[in-house]
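All the exercises in this workshop are built on plain-text protein records. There is nothing in a record beyond a sequence line and a structure line. A learned vocabulary of local backbone shapes supplies the integers on the structure line. The question running through the whole workshop is how a given chain folds. Here is such a record, shown just as it appears in the course material:

***
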Amino acid sequence: MTADRTTAPRTATRRRIVAGAALAPLLALAACGYGSDKKDDTTNAAASSGASSGTSKKLSASAVKIGYFANLTHATPLVGLKEGFFAQELGSGTTIKESVFNAGPAEIEALNAGSIDIGWIGPSPAVNGWTKSGGKSLKIISGSASGGVKLVVNPEKIKSLKDVKGKRIATPQLGNTQDVALLNWISEQGWKVDATSGKGDVSVVRTDNKITPDAYKSGSIDGAWVPEPTASKLVAEGAKVLLDESSLWKDGKFVITNVIVSQKFLTEHPDVVEAVLRGSVKTNAWITANPDKAEADANAQLEKLSGKPLPDDVIDPAWKSIQVTDDPLASTLQTEADHAVTAGLLEKPDLKGIYDLTILNKILTAEGKTEFGNAGLGS
């Protein structure tokens, strides 16, 4: 059983919690695989939320370095850190050191350098990190989120899917998760685009999400295949959702965020990895049970990290389109990698061994939940 989040009607309580966000400008956020900045923040595990320790047993590491993005598709770390679920599982003897990234490649570099031990990241950077290291740098140890990606367009220029031909469509970065998805979709329409240059029947314009809204307003792009909350920001500016990527996948689910760990850290500190994953599983279950409070928590964390919360007309639709889940959705990772190969952006990778779900499934079994498979890509 997954911890997929179901949404509830917005309540008056939730409105009071985030009322101050309504007039705030959009936080310009990056998603999987683009941007370059990193922010470090060291917090005491037990003190970070005022929560009491969930374990009295001293773990094998005095600190764990966690990386994630200031992005709604990284709701698990945003909410889990604020509510103290990770702190409770780690106990007072293990400090959490946070690093906030705008870029998947930068997070992989940090993992390889030992600057982080565990991270939340998108599928394309995870696959690239695995292949470039010859399968030695990381393991995917859990899922975290599905969905939250849309093709949004200028309704005056694009009224149907066939109208996308000949138009300028933005993606966050060459070869990132959304870029690969758009290139694959274009190919399925029978259109041709050079993957590297982005030139062809559709002009694929690689544009950092920080400036995509301005590019849309200026008319330099006609639409964008982007993750949340950028998609909802464009809608707030008058764009229309032409296609939700979830409609292209079986059961409407595809991996957008994984949990990865350094293989070295996994070998040396499996007890710490288990504590973090217990916190992740508990966070996802709590988000499912408390969607409005979780949404407010995520927005509060975004405000803390950037000084700007998301306004209601952006965060509400964005939040609804994302599902948190412990399921790594392993078969969709292989499919996304195959799409990158077809687009000419990746040589066919050998992903066997990229998953190690041993600890996750141990936790799920202990809670009476169904284990998840690795689609033949386990060790």
The CA atoms of residues 142 and 360 lie 6 Å apart.
